[in-house]
Amino acid sequence: MRATILICLFSLGAFAMPINAKLYDKDSQENYAFTGKMEGLLKEIAGIKVGMSRKKVGHLFRLPMFPEEGSVGDRIHQTYIFRNCPYIKVDFEFQQSRENKISSNDLDDLIVRMSKPYLELSKPK
User: d(Cα 18, Cα 38) in Å, to the nearest integer?
Assistant: First the structure.
């Protein structure tokens, strides 16, 4: 009985190990480093929340500058490109802070919705 309990506890302990320790061995350090980098980028992006201003979005993201990067959208719906990796994009929906504004992108506009980050290659020219 005692041996059975120890075996069960040992088995559960194996599942409780950090996922990185189970997935990677010493031969796949590049994958481990890549995964760590991606985790850092996603945590950085997760700092942007609904209710924040367009100005905060501009610290981490930029609007597409070239047609092959995607459409800019309008003042309300826009796709932004992560500054640290041009393949990571997030779609935002903003609430206008002022109705009659000369600029189409008021920095005081607030995020009302945002997509999860997604990967997308630039479109061919």
Answer: 17
Q: Can you spell out the DSSP letters for 101-114? A: -SSSS-TT-EEEEE
pTM: 0.69
Ordered by start, the domain boundaries in the chain are 1-46, 49-125
Of all helices (H) and strands (E), which one includes residue 93?
A: strand 88-95
**Using an 8 Å Cβ cutoff, are 50 and 58 in contact?**
no
- Tens digits of per-residue pLDDT, 49-108? 999 999 999 889 988 877 667 666 788 899 999 999 989 999 999 998 877 565 667 889
Helix (H, G, I), strand (E, B) or coil at 78: strand
| Alpha-carbon torsion, ordered 64, 65, 67, 71, to 10 deg | 30
Are 114 and 57 spatial neighbours (Cβ–Cβ below 8 Å)?
no
SS3 80: strand
